[in-house]
Amino acid sequence: MSDPRQDPLRDPRFFADPYPTYDRLREGCPVQRVPTGSGGHHSYLITGHAEAREAFTDPRLSKDTARFFADRPSNRDLHPAISRNMLASDPPEHTRQRRVVTPLFSTGRVRALRPYITRVVDGLTAAWQPDTEVDLVADLAVPLPVTVVCELLGVPESDRAALAGWSHDLFDATDTGRVDAASHRIGDYLTGLVEAARATPGDGPLPALLRDCDEGGLDPAETVSLAALLLVAGHETTTQFIGNAVLALLRHPEAFDRLRRDLDLIPGALDELLRFDSPVSVATFRYSTEDLRVGGVDIPAGFPVLIAPGAANRDPSAFPAPDRLDLDRDAGGHLSFGHGIHRCPGAPLARAEAEIALRTLVTRFPNTRLAVPEDSLTWRRTRLTRGLTALPLTLA
Questions:
Q1: How many whole angstroms separate alpha carbon 339 and alpha carbon 59?
Q2: Range of 382's domain?
Q3: Which of 195, 235, 291, 331 could form an S-S bond across to 271 if both were Cys, CB 3.0 to 4.6 Å?
Q4: Has residue 33 been placed in a domain?
């Protein structure tokens, strides 16, 4: 068991490198009760791969956060579009909303988006020159998925930077007031965007999405919450995916060189890059609706359950030598996109964006290197996602 007095997921060392913490916890027990936050609260943390897969598909683990907090006092003030979305619901509500979302990221639709994604990447990197320095996070990993998802939602270009900033604030684990304020800015903005689109119907991605929502039986609040989910989930984790993948390749130059010499390896390498440093460290909120047993551990009803894909992806029982980046590994069983009915529907789009970004980097700048000492890199202070605050590169 972990130290009963300390939250292992709030230690500064965890944010810098969560894997030693995950290894220690998993070796103790892949499912265990840990302190979370302050005030004597506890959750069950799942760090084993088999146990995480089991938990992801257990219907006794609910994602209905509104139901969980209904009779629990809270000083939080999240906008309903953020707190009551598809990701925070169970069937049949979840099933009904997911039917609207899934077709947006079908193989055919993502294939049709690839030329647009390529144009966005080319535009963002057009001014990049050898022997100059760029911040891969600010200059590519953030604006690429933001631009794509804002295009899908019909967000004017003049508003996209503000939305990206609010989404960034939404993941600030150090300031709940900032998180709540960001949720209202996003919710209010998207409410206005949807209302304006309904007032002047026409062609384009957003009117098409609204028609899909109407046909799927979503009410106005559910439609706004779906737009918010597409915005936040549609770019935040992809930003971390791209940054983490590039850093992993720079740390393993032989892998970077293999991709440079054979670009056809890039699509297959994405699973190992996702496994090696997952952009989702701890999955979103779940809680036990009744007593259950996971991995031989009894979990009482009414407790939050934290499933950690970042830990599961480094479980040596599922991936031998898990701390080694191995492009020849079959990493298709990673849990970075989740598993079961809540598996990320936008995974095909995230993969396409990361693939095109990596292809551009290794093709145009095959000798790129870190512009700062590796130990000076800083990571965002949130247990939910794992990503760099900046990734300074010297292009070459």
A1: 13
A2: 12-394
A3: 331
A4: yes
- How high is the pLDDT of residue 167? 87
**Within a domain: 6:** no
Q: What's this model's pTM, rounded to 2 decimal places?
A: 0.93
Whether the CB-CB separation of 308 and 282 falls below 8 Å is answered with: yes
What is the C-alpha to C-alpha distance for residues 331 and 319, in angstroms, rounded to an integer?
8
Residue 5 lies in a domain: no
Please report the pLDDT score of residue 2 as a whole number.
46
DSSP string covering 27-89, please?
HH-SEEEEE-SSSS-EEEEE--HHHHHHHHT-TTEE--HHHHHTTS-------HHHHSSGGG-
Q: In what order do the strands lie in the sheet with 133-135?
A: 133-135, 392-394, 369-370
Interatomic CA distance for residues 155 and 237, integer angstroms: 19
Tally of domains within the chain: 1
Query: What CATH number does the domain containing 55 carry?
Result: 1.10.630.10
Handedness of CA 126, 130, 134, 140 (dihedral sign): positive
Half-sphere exposure (CA, 13 Å, Cβ side) for 34?
Answer: 26
Whether 3 is in a domain gets the answer no
Express each pLDDT in 246-289 by its tens digit.
999 999 999 999 999 999 999 999 999 999 999 999 999 999 99
pLDDT tens readout for residues 109-128? 999 999 999 999 999 999 99
- Give CA–CA dist 221/122, Å, rounded: 37
